[in-house]
Every structure is written in structure tokens, then in C-alpha cells.
Amino acid sequence: MFRHILRSLTGGPVTEAAPAPSDPALAELADKLQKAAKARLGRSLSIREVDAGSCNGCELEIHALNNPIYDLERFGIRFVASPRHADVLLVTGPVTKNMREALYRTWDATPDPKWVIACGDCAIGGGVFKDSYACVGPVEEVVPVDLRIPGCPPRPAELLAGLLALLETSAAT
Amino acid sequence: MYGEQPLFGLLNRIGTPVEGHRPWPRYRLTREGWLAMIEELAGNAWTLLGLWGEQHAVHAAFREDLAGDIAVVSLDCPQGRFPSLSPVRPSANRLERAIHDLFGLTAERTTDPRSWLDHDAWGVRRPLSDHPAAPAPNPGPYTFLPVEGEGLHQIPVGPVHAGIIEPGHFRFTANGETVVRLEERLGYVHKGIEGLMRGKSIGDAARLAARVSGDSTVAHSLAFARAVEAALGVEVPPRAVWLRALMAELERIANHFGDIGAVCNDAAFAFMLAEMSQLRERVLRVADTCFGHRLMMDRVVPGGVSVDIPERGPALLLDLVADLRKRFAPLVTIYDGKASLQDRTVSTGIVSTGLVNRFGTGGYVGRASGRGLDARRSPGYAPYDDLEFEVPVLTEGDVNARVWIRIREVEQSLSLIEQIVKRIPGVPRGLDGTTPLPCVPVEGQGETAREGMALVEAFRGEILTWVRVNGDGTIDRCHPRDASWFQWPLLEAAIEGNIVADFPLCNKSFNCSYSGHDL
After folding, report:
1. What is the pLDDT of residue B488?
2. Three-state DSSP state, B172
3. Which of A159, B315, B404, B484 could serve as B517's disulfide partner, Cβ 3.0–4.6 Å?
4. pLDDT 10s digits, B244-290
């Protein structure tokens, strides 16, 4: 194992360069944040992930953000265990009716200023589940949404670009 | 066990075969026949493969494990009731509760009549029956099982958990640090998939099947496709059969890498997660290059596949196998050599062989506890009958055994990928030099509805998908039963007597799907 660690130390990082913050995401946010955020976050974001009915595909890709290749924490972005520690809720899934209250309560427990990201096609518009008796549909029908990251599921690089856009804008306000 | 009747012996005596159900027979039973079957089940070891409802009937699938015989039995329920299977097959209980919540069919003398998927939030009761009802006016809180005793306290967890995982509620009752009971409350991610599939075209339903559980998207797509193809008698091009297996094995190793890393991480050994997640990323990137999607979603479709690998695909895949072999082996040595890690995983969360057999539990949970079934072997499906692989089995039944089964399965799957890449039938080339996709059209059969069933081995275990396709090619009823249905109940047993702090470890070693279970 120590040989393995030594090799990692001398071999250089496996982490890849960051993608550019995604432009449409930046535009969407700039508008909202100017009104919303007085407090500066100092280029640091704490994210609470909420699965509101996803198929778990989005979760797999969100997990990948934490691997050494994407290494989310180098940007000051990290996932936290409680909404009370969070600046951002990253919500996936077509908001099942069975999860509606839990999602709302999680949002309610998150201190202001806070942002909500709808992650994936289901969270943005209900996806293939939108006409179900068991789904509410878009996240914005339950809590206000500030940023949308489309995809089924979004690739880690796309998630990263969206989060960086949030960081850049929140630092600029 | 002795003196037990063969499955078909009994069903031919008490049931009437139904036409147009493939590849295994389906029998319609009378109520007396159903009761006679329950009596027989009390004394034999047939595995319950699935239990699902429709508007006026219930269906159950059974397998005689040794002979490999499989059959579906059906009972019409004009009164909206059917005799429960749960007294003789405990794995039936949650399925019966789901049938009640969705179709309003009541299981008589069931061992637990509480609602399961219905949390009184849909605005409708029994949504899939032909007479959905208004919601209950004053729904009370869900009643958890009572616990009595000195010094007991309860710890409610969820539905929103601390990690990046799916939602579900766990109610722990602990005495000091020791868990004396865990009760699961699931259904939070119920999306109504079975309802959405009704009336959809085969193509649209396939997109839903691909989203039953994202981590098993290939396996669920494959199970759905094979069920539809069985129903309609469609012959899939040989190249598509091999490409499907290739995707299935890539999905298997990607998930196993993720799980092995996550189990170690829950034992506070983050190094392993960092390493394993890089291996997982390596697999997903090759999948992306070869199939155009990291998770290979919507790539397996009824009739074949929706994409073929590019010309450099085979070389990339062989490189991948060589690279993973080189990088995985030293990590396994590290796992095996770290006393602090073994201290957490060995003898933690033991599941007995008796329990996995009673629940018909498949996948690594079953195989780590001595139940060596694998749908790729029995009933078996192409191309696995042409490929060499072993099904690893251990008997310890603890977290460590479930990790080792995954390790061994990764090794087997790497070998399978290598065999598939080397032996896959060539790309068919048309006269004009084009290369058509290995996919044939799948259409309804005119007047009559056809029924089909498929068993497919996902990374987590055996998936059963049953489907009835209308004459016009729309889906009348589809039921995908994820492996998790028969694994979730055993997690409650695994944690008993362990400390609360070991729950994440046990849970991760099972890694049941919430979405695949809640549908």
C-alpha cells in the first residue's frame, strides 16, 4: 500500500482541468443572484443533495464529482450531510408525491441565502415520468429553482460546469 | 423436501395452460387450485420469483431450483381478494402490500396488511384498478411495529439521508449501541412506472424500463427487451445479443467497483474509495466512447441494440481489461491485508443460508450466503451458454463475503468482456457497403395479445420482467421485479445484533435499489 501511495505522490495528480463554467447556466444565474445574494460566499459552496424520486442515475454521476478525477472539493464546493449546513440544494428526480413534503421540509431547513439546482431532465420537467399519478413534476412546482442542469443523467463535466457557474456568479455579487 | 411433486406435475393437475405465454408456461388456477398450491408450497422449496397484480387477477412465478423448471400461475379475483402466499413465502408479503396499494386486491390472511407504496399522498387510492378511489379523508400516521422492553430507544432515519443516496426511512430500535430491530419504510420514490407503461408503445415503455433503476439500466432494458421479444417471437441479430452482454458486463464491473470502494469508505478507509472510483470512471469513459452514454442508457432496445461500437472499440475494450487487471489486483491485496478494514467487515451483518433460501435472494447477497444461483446460468440465456465463467459462492454471509463475491465477479466479468470482444460476430455489411444496426423491428401481432417473461442477471441479482403486448403493439401490462425486492427484507435481519455504527457498512454491502423497488 505504501508503494502505491508513493507512486501516487510522484506520479502527479489524476485530476483533470476544470471545464469552463457553462454559459447558459451563467446567464440564468446572473439575473437571479443579483437580487438574491447580498452575502458573499467567498468562493465556497456547501451542497445538500436531495433525491426526490430519481432513478439513481443522477446520483451515480453526482458521486463521480467526488472522485479524484473531477475532485469537486478543489473548487471549495463540498457535499454536506445536513440541509442546515447547506447553501445549495441539488435536487434530482421528478418529485414523487411521496417525497414532496420531505423536499419542502429540506428546503425549509436550509438557511438563507440559498439556491436550488434542478439536476437532470426529471427535475427540470418531470422527464419520462411527468404524467404519472405519483409525480408532482418539475422541482420548481415545490420550491423555487435558480439553476437547471439538463441531461439524463448530466455528465459529471456538465454538473461541474453548472456548479462553477454558480460559484463564479455568487462570488461576483 | 422428500416426496415433493415436480412443479409441472402439480400445475398440470390443478391448472389450465394459457395460450401465448412464452418462453415458460402460464397456468390459470381456480381458487381451490390456488389453495392447493399454497398447501404444496408449505412443504416444498420452490422459489417465488415474483408476484404481481393486474385489474382482476394476480400472477405468481415459481422456479424449482434443482430442475430449473419455471412456471407462472394466475388467479382471477372477481371479488378483489386472493389467498395470501406470505404465510408460506415470506418474500411475498411486500409484493402483496404493493398489489393492494396499486390494484386494490386484498391478500387474505396475509402476514402484514399495512400499506406499502401508498403514503396517502397520491390524491387517489388503488390508482391502477378500474375503479380508483378518492383518498382517505383523514389518513393516520404509518404504524410501525410495536417494540416493548426495558432500555430500548428508537432512532428514526430518513427519508432524506446524510449521503448522496436515495430516500427511504429506517426505524432502528436499539438497546445501547446494539440494534435489536430495524424496520424499513420504503415507497418514497414510487413514480408509478407500471401505470405509465400501460398503453405506451414498445419504444416508449422501453425508455421507462431503462429508468427503473439507473445503476441497472442495461439489465432492466435487457429484461424488458427479452420479455417483449419472447412474447412476440422476435429473433434478435446475433451481434446484438453479444453487444448486449458486453454492456451488461461493463455495467456489472462499474457497479462492483463503486460498491467495493463505498463499503471500504464506510469502514473509514477512504483510500479504497478514491482508487475504486477511478477504476469505475475508467469503465464509464470506455462505455461512453463505445456506446455514446456513460451508463449505456437506452442502448439495449427491443429487437436489438440502438448503437454499435466504433471501429476502435474492440482495441479500447481489450486495453481496458488489461489496465483494470493490472490496477485491480494490488487493491484487492490491500483490502485483504488491512486488519483495521477486516475488523469492520468480517463477521458483520451476517445473513444465514436458510434466510436467503426462504426469500429466494439472488445476487451477491445470496451468493455470499451459500445460494449460488445466477440467471446467466439458470435459466441461462445467450450468449452466456457460449462463454466460460464461474459463479463465485461463499458461505460466511457477512459484509466481507459480499465484498469478496464482488471482487470475484469483477474478475469473471473482465474475462467475459475479453471473450466477448474476441468472439463477437462481425458487423454485417450490406451490398452497398453500409453497416445496418443489429436491430430488427418489433411489432404487435395483429389480433391477439401475447405474453412474455424474462429473467436477467443484473449486477445486484436476478431481475424478472413480465409483459403483455396488445395486438396493436402497445403495452397492456408490464411488471419489472428488481432483485432488491428479495434483498431489502434480509437487510433487516443482517443488522440485528450489530451496532448502529455498522449499519452504513451493512447497507452498502447490500446496496439495494430504492427506485427499482418502489417503481
Report:
1. 96
2. strand
3. B484
4. 999 999 999 999 999 999 999 999 999 999 999 999 999 999 999 99
Q: What is the least distance, in Å, from the CA of A124 to any CA of chain B? A: 16
Residues 123-142 of B with CB under 8 A from A: 123-124, 127
Q: Distance (Å) from the C-alpha of residue B66 to the closest C-alpha of chain A?
A: 35
Q: Domain check: are B99 and B198 in the same one?
A: no
Across the interface, of B190, B215, B513, the residue whose CB is closest to A134 is B190
The residue among B86, B108, B130 that closes a domain is B108
The whole-model pTM stands at: 0.94
B2 pLDDT tier (thresholds 50, 70, 90) = very low
Q: What percent of chain B has pLDDT over 90?
A: 87
Predicted local distance difference test score (pLDDT) of residue B324: 97
Asked whether residue B434 carries a pLDDT value surpassing 80, the answer given is no
Sign of the C-alpha dihedral, residues B148, B154, B158, B164?
negative
Per residue in A74-128, pLDDT (tens digit) is 888 899 999 999 999 999 999 999 999 999 999 999 998 899 999 999 999 999 9
Q: Name the residue facing A57 among B122, B271, B297 (closest C-beta).
A: B297
Q: What is the CATH number of the domain that holds B360?
A: 1.10.645.10
Q: Who among B189, B207, B281 is closest to A67 (CB)? A: B281
CATH of the domain at B27: 3.30.460.80
| Residue B143 belongs to a domain | no
- With an 8 Å Cβ cutoff, are B207 and A68 in contact? no
Q: Residue A13: what pLDDT?
A: 81
Residue B149 lies in a domain: no
What contacts B243, CB < 8 A, 6 or more positions away?
B305, B308, B309, B424, B438
Please report whether residue B126 resides in a domain: no
pLDDT of residue A26: 59
Number of helices (H), then strands (E), belonging to chain A: the values are: 6, 5
B213 and B97 part of one domain: no
How close B466 comes to chain A (CA, Å)? 20
B454 touches B480 (CB < 8 A)? no
Q: Are residues B338 and B484 in the same domain?
A: yes
CB–CB contact A127 B211 (8 Å): yes
Residue among B190, B294, B334 minimizing CB distance to A96: B190
B132 in any annotated domain: no
Q: Does the beta-carbon distance from A106 to B330 stay under 8 Å?
A: no
pLDDT at A61: 96
Rounded distance, CA B127 to CA B123, Å?
A: 9
Count H helices and E strands in chain B, helices first: 16, 16
Residues 141-180 of B with CB under 8 A from A: 159-160, 162-167
* pLDDT tens-digit readout, A1-37: 888 888 888 887 888 887 777 767 656 665 555 444 4
Alpha carbon distance A114, A145 (integer Å): 10
Residues B103 and B197 in one domain: no
Which range marks the domain in which residue B513 is found? 193-518
Give the residue from B108, B141, B169 where a domain finishes. Answer: B108
* B94 shares its domain with B237: no
Q: Do B85 and B224 fall into the same domain?
A: no
- Confidence tier at B108 by pLDDT (50, 70, 90): very high
d(CA A171, CA B515): 37
Which residues numbered 495-514 in B keep a CB inside 8 Å of some CB on A? 513-514
Instruction: Return residues 122-141 of A near B (CB < 8 Å).
Output: 127-129, 131-135
Element (H, E) at B315: helix B313-337
User: Among residues 350-409 of chain B, which lie with CB inside 8 Å of chain A?
Assistant: none
pLDDT of residue A107: 96
Q: Based on the fold, state whether residues B240 and B351 are members of the same structural domain.
A: yes
ipTM exceeds 0.85, yes or no? yes
Question: What is the tally of structural domains in chain B?
Answer: 2
Q: Which residue in A60, A67, A128 is closest to B215 by CB distance?
A: A60
Determine the straight-line distance between the first and last CA of chain A, rounded to whole angstroms: 46
Same domain for B362 and B505, yes or no, is yes
